[in-house]
Amino acid sequence: MIKDILVHLDGTGDDEVRIKHAEALAVSSQAYVTGLFTNPLPDFAAFASMDGGAGAAALLAQMQDDSRKLADEVLQRLTERFGKLAVPNEIRRIEDLPGQIADLVASESRWGDLTIVGQPYHGDDKADWDDLFESVLFESGRGVLVVPPQRQPADEIRRVLICWRDSREAARAVAEALPIIEGATRADILVIDPPRDSDASKGAAAIDIARHLDRHGTKVEITIAESGNRGISDVILDQARRLSADLIVMGGYGHSRAREWIMGGATRDMLSNMEFPILMAH
Questions:
Q1: Cα 117 from Cα 224, distance rounded (Å)
Q2: Which of 83, 233, 261, 271 could form a disulfide with 254 if both were Cys (CB 3.0 to 4.6 A apart)?
Q3: Interval 195-216 mean pLDDT
Q4: Which domains does the chain have, with CATH numbers?
């Protein structure tokens, strides 16, 4: 069961949506919620064009002091908000240079069951937490629930869409999501572009995982889809809409962005255009 839920907080308006998702999951599983409030401090690298002398050092110290004071105010508001949650909770403040924040959050995520973060690759002027998402996905060893902006949580997660392929990442995602899948009333397994060796083989990739989930007491259906001229993410989103899915479960494929990540762009496309909460693991 899920007993420890971590949720990333950054003091922006998107915090509220992530908090609501954390609370909804925690209420259904009687879990503990830990807020991870991140405050990246101004970095000396930003002053590289200056002479690097006492003036630059003093300016940096003042900016970091101002950042901490602003963070104190944000933390007070978040503490008041957490005081209204219907589940046990706490807030931890993570404060460091921007290059260190993502690794610190990944480290915290290793002791929890699930970490909730906001949408990466959104392409707008909101706070950029792409590195944080990637660190949690690839370095924590745990599942990460990505929440789209403005998407309110379901009272209960009843319908789950599982994007299945014969891969380690897909298996990890199902394993991390299993406590949620067990409580769902329906789980649809979607297999896109299965092997073409024979008609019989088209559903073979999903049969065993369907039987596995059935043994966990979940009603399972299998859908086989051909992408044709459509993108993989379009096929997934179409099926999620048909199902009125409360959650999509899928593997996070590839390596970090610095190592040219994302298999065929499908995972990144899903995250860039997401409409549904997505639980990922790697």
A1: 30
A2: 261
A3: 79
A4: 4-147 (3.40.50.620), 159-281 (3.40.50.620)
Under the banding of pLDDT at 50, 70 and 90, the label for residue 201 is: low
Which runs of E-coded beta strand occur in the chain?
4-9, 32-40, 89-96, 114-118, 143-147, 159-163, 186-192, 220-225, 247-251, 278-281
β-strand 159-163 against 143-147: which pairing, if any?
unpaired
User: In this predicted structure, which of 49-63, 67-81, 217-231, 249-263 has the lowest mean pLDDT?
Assistant: 249-263
- Token pair belonging to 172: 């990890």
The H or E element that residue 179 is part of is helix 168-183
- CA–CA gap between residue 24 and residue 64 (Å, rounded): 35
Mean pLDDT across 68-86: 98
Q: How far apart are CA 157 and CA 212, in angstroms?
A: 20
Burial (CB count within 10 angstroms: exposed 0-12, middle 13-18, buried 19+), residue 60: middle
Mean pLDDT calculated for residue range 204-227 = 93
144-160 residue pLDDT tens: 999 999 899 998 999 99
Q: For the chain, first and last CA: distance in Å?
A: 20
| Cβ-contact 209, 189 below 8 angstroms | yes
Q: What is the pTM of this model?
A: 0.92
